[in-house]
Design goal:
Blueprint lengths: L6 H4 L2 H16 L1 H38 L7 H7 L1
């Protein structure tokens, strides 16, 4: 199944993007748009921090598990290899 992009999106170009930006600024005002962008930036920062903390937690859990792993080799096999 093919999803077709509407024609007005295919030919938008730089002038169209500038026009959209001007209209958004006129509708919401500079302060509202800048505060919205600030909130988006904070959200991205929080997401990256969460991903990093999650990765660190997983790495620490793996490290702790490897330190507490027990050797369950039977004593007979240990003496044969020595």
């Amino acid at each position: 199944m093919f999803l077709h992009t509407p024609l007005f999106i295919q030919n938008i170009g730089l002038p169209g993007l500038i026009l959209i930006a001007v209209v958004v600024l006129l509708m919401f005002g500079r302060g509202k748009v800048s505060s919205l962008m600030g909130e988006v930036g904070k959200g991205i920062t929080a997401f990256k921090k969460g991903v990093k903390e999650g990765k660190d937690d997983i790495d620490n859990a793996i490290e702790d598990a490897s330190e507490t792993a027990k050797d369950i080799t039977p004593e007979e096999d240990k003496t044969e290899k020595s």
